[in-house]
Write a structure and sequence with these properties.
Elements (H helix, E strand, L loop, with lengths): L2 E9 L2 E10 L2 E6 L7 E11 L1 E6 L12 H10 L2 E6 L10 H11 L6 E7 L6 H4 L5 E5 L12 H14 L3 E4 L14 H7 L2 H11 L6 E3 L5 H7 L5 E4 L1 H5 L19 H12 L5 E2 L8 H4 L16 H10 L5 H15 L15 E4 L5 E2 L18 E2 L4 E4 L2 E5 L2 E2 L13
Parallel strand pairs: 1-4, 5-6, 6-7, 7-8, 8-9, 9-10, 10-11, 11-12
Antiparallel strand pairs: 1-2, 2-3, 4-13, 13-16, 14-15, 16-17, 17-18
Length: 417
């Protein structure tokens, strides 16, 4: 036995005092007591599964002035995220096998946590060739960062059919491009008017005609959530769509696609999340530099960082009694692992030993000076959070009390198979 960790662990849906035996990066035994070569007694601290963020943009390669795989995965570890699934709209975009291999080479050896890569879909994407090397595929039905845009139903149908044959999940940015306007914008309300909830609803209904495993990314409106109730899609929500709205102060710093909507939209999504009606918690971590965001609203790029702060904010809500622990762990770990077929997501024998250790009494305020993301700003500064005391990736300590403790152990979850 390489390591035994003891504490109040979340095992089989309940917290209790357990010892977890780890060998070769996996959990090999769970019992009340275990004898091991090295032992860490965590007392009354909580041992929770490491979070899996199913939606990040780490900007590597091509946009590394905003973030890179080193800083992005370090930020993830600080926030209790032990696996990130990275989106394809980099430079060049991962829409071909050659571009995918180029990206894998560019990020090799940089990661502090485990990762998977999405393949981007266009009518010409080499889906079958890329499938063995990606965790899933991504379609943009509405324009956003980059030029990966698919608007025709015939193209969507062909892409979905091809993705289905690979057995992979098709994650979708669900905004109907035909319903997006491009009028001049000066405020968050202007941005919302250009990208109405009707665009989200229309995209969801159009996707219902496809035959594939579909995940709806960053659901943002009450109407969109209600439309999803009729379909078997999995769905993801972000912290910014549950905590912020068009009345929030921040100007272009809060410009994001899909947009921040009304208070009613925000509260509907938050209630759906805490009641367990949303599958996954994703950050849609999309960092831009301060210089980018200081531009005039109309020209400033869309996107906010969040991989480092999403889970800690949810842990604080759990401590306050607002968010049930079982709902949070299901959405941040169990369902992402199940949906994307990862050997992770639970403290269970045979799974990777990815976990965080938290002290529920240790509530702090998010302070940009304590964060690791390269972009050096956060839309959540000042919000309550519980940052992990320790983070382990496959049994290796990566971070303790906000400081690095280990090496870059992160590996490609698909290549590792």
């Amino acid at each position: 036995m390489d390591l035994v960790v003891e504490g109040r662990a979340y095992i089989r849906g309940k917290l209790g005092h357990w010892a977890i035996g780890i060998e070769d990066g996996q959990i090999v035994k769970i019992a009340r007591t275990i004898r091991g070569a090295e032992r860490i007694d965590l007392g009354n601290k909580l041992i929770l599964p490491g979070a899996i963020d199913p939606h990040v943009h780490l900007r590597d390669p091509g946009l590394t002035d905003k973030e890179d795989f080193s800083t992005g995965t370090l930020a993830a570890a600080h926030g209790g995220v032990t696996t990130v699934l990275d989106m394809p709209n980099t430079l060049p975009p991962t829409i071909s096998l050659s571009n995918l291999l180029e990206k894998k080479e560019a990020i090799a050896g940089k990661a502090w946590v485990d990762y998977g890569l999405f393949g981007g879909c266009t009518p010409k994407t080499e889906i079958e060739e890329m499938a063995p090397m990606v965790v899933g595929f991504k379609v943009f039905m509405g324009s956003s960062t980059g030029r990966l845009l698919v608007t025709e139903d015939s193209d969507l149908n062909k892409i979905a059919s091809r993705v289905k044959r690979t057995g992979k999940v098709l994650s979708v940015h669900a905004e109907d491009e035909d319903l997006i306007q491009f009028n001049e914008e000066k405020t968050l309300t202007d941005h919302l008017q250009n990208r109405p909830s009707a665009a989200e609803v229309s995209a969801i209904h159009r996707l219902s005609r496809l035959d594939s495993k579909i995940n709806i990314c960053h659901i943002s409106s009450a109407e969109g959530f209600q439309a999803l109730e009729a379909y078997p899609f999995t769905k993801e929500v972000t912290a910014h769509h549950m905590i912020l709205d068009r009345e929030s102060e921040g100007g272009a710093y809060l410009k994001v696609n899909p947009p921040l909507r009304t208070k009613d939209d925000r509260l509907t999504l938050f209630q759906a999340f805490v009641s367990g009606h949303i599958d996954m918690l994703g950050s849609d971590h999309a960092p831009h530099t301060i210089e980018d965001k200081e531009q005039e609203f109309d020209t400033a790029p869309s996107g906010v960082p969040g991989v480092e702060t999403t889970v800690p904010m949810m842990l604080a809500l759990m401590k306050r009694g607002t968010l049930p622990i079982e709902v949070l762990i299901r959405a941040m770990a169990e369902r992402p692992a199940s949906i994307f077929n990862l050997n992770k997501g639970k403290l269970e024998v045979g799974l990777d030993a990815d976990f965080m250790v938290i002290d529920p009494r240790s509530i702090s305020r998010i302070n940009i000076n304590d964060l690791y993301s390269k972009c050096n700003w956060s839309p959540f500064e000042g919000k309550e959070a519980i940052f992990p005391k320790m983070v382990f990736v496959r049994g290796e300590s990566v971070m303790e009390d906000g400081e690095l403790t280990g090496d870059r152990v992160g590996r490609d979850v698909i290549a590792a198979r």
